[in-house]
């Protein structure tokens, strides 16, 4: 019954998304009119990417005389329904999409995305996007990232950091931690004062990012390549994943993470940090611009996870051009506009991590600090990617396993066994094991 409910719910979600996509000009009308471009993305207007891409749309319309039909979708709408959408007449011309084997790689291997190699040459995008930033835009015929053809173009970077409400730390006489021992000490001091330190959302990505960061703190390149690129076997009872899972369980028992967070979504966890309910929040730099604009009277700071050479992160999400798009040349022009100096500089001054900004044009001091932090991660080859990338179903499966761990219905070994079974099944089904 539960499975049937899930299928019906997915069907309703797809139908709703199609209905939303059908607003405005019909598909046939749009095909006759080359002066429109249909764009979907899921960034908040107050965030750095949202501000930058609004500017890109403005500049694009002015330069090319093209009317943009922009529709904001949620991350979950696009993530859950992308294959159905892009295999229909409702597909947009250009769309923000999540990077990785299980998302962009899967769609590329299904023939649903446009090979962008010619546009990369035309616009010299590979001169701006290289190294680990380029890995998430290139996929081989099995959908494995890091080699093959270009199917996605990023224009920013991202990593996951620990945000601290400095006002709450100062009020309680607690120092901002700079080491792992100090981090645990600070959390214990908050618990002793009756305050749960970490804002968490176990229903979506926040806790799985923390779990992966803990694993990365014990990892090397060999482990990451095995997990993300299928180069070797993953030891699910090894030190990396056992440590991460055991630590999450310990932090729940100690009160660092609330058991009530199992049903909390990412947006709610971020809002709880913004309104001062929790003094700490481990999440992505995609929140940075929102915290700048939505917390003007709060003294807050951030840092990468203490004493870890590898951090959760990668290039930002990518622009993809659906294979069904009738305006691929226009879509490429828009993507190029998002890499223009004006758009990149605006992103940098709004709390984002642009990849092609003029450093002298970044005047906001807090934004400079963020960019310098990310550049240091890149210099040390410190990006450790994301935990849900290996299979198309692993995002939901990781969340489900961690929910059971947090609410106490499953122990560490059982959680790891469940994760391993789901991982192995997904990799085998995808047929990507090298």
UniProtKB/TrEMBL annotation:
PROSITE patterns recorded: PROKAR_LIPOPROTEIN (PS51257)
Sorted UniProt keywords: Cell membrane, Lipoprotein, Membrane, Palmitate, Signal
Pfam (any one): SBP_bac_1
Gene3D superfamilies: Periplasmic binding protein-like II
Keyword check for Membrane: yes
Residues making up the signal peptide according to the UniProt record: 1-21
Statement: the UniProt record of this protein carries the keyword Iron: no
PANTHER family in the record: ARABINOSE-BINDING PROTEIN-RELATED, POLYGALACTURONAN_RHAMNOGALACTURONAN-BINDING PROTEIN YTCQ
Name of the protein in its database record: Sugar ABC transporter substrate-binding protein
Species the sequence originates in: Alloscardovia macacae
Lineage: Bacteria, Bacillati, Actinomycetota, Actinomycetes, Bifidobacteriales
